[in-house]
Amino acid sequence: MKINGPGRVPGPNPYQQTARYEKEAVRKQQKKDEVQISPEAKSMLQSEEAQPVSREQRIQQLKEQVQSGTYHVSSEKIAEKLIQYWRNQL
Fold first, then answer.
1. What is the extent of the structural domain holding 45?
2. What are 64-84's pLDDT values in tens digits?
3. From 23's CA, which of 10, 51, 67, 82 has a CA 20 to 30 Å away?
4. Does 16 fall in a domain?
5. Is 45 inside any structural domain?
């Protein structure tokens, strides 16, 4: 027979710990994913919807310039973008 000294508290019951873990698992399953769209993103979406014609016109202009050979790309802009790209990669 084992006798514990006065004031000694036995350890936690492993069955109670299992029940607690099961409750936490149920709570985790009940959580749902949520998506919040910022006001800035909403305004961007609305502005894109309001101006689809101008974008299509711009694309058509670019296509015509490329086909006619008058489309010019600035080498400085290309170099700047390449430098930015490689700086972000390192």
1. 40-89
2. 999 999 998 899 999 999 999
3. 10
4. no
5. yes
Ordered DSSP codes for the chain? ---PPTTPPPPPPHHHHHHHHHHHHHHHHH--------HHHHHHHHHHHH-HHHHHHHHHHHHHHHHHT-----HHHHHHHHHHHHHHH-
For the chain, the domain total comes to: 1
Query: Percentage of the chain with pLDDT > 70?
Result: 72
Q: What's the predicted TM-score (pTM) here?
A: 0.34
The whole-number average pLDDT for the span 45-71 is 84
Contacts of 71 (CB under 8 A, 6+ apart): 62, 65
Distances (CA, A) of 67 to 29, 53, 55: 57, 21, 18
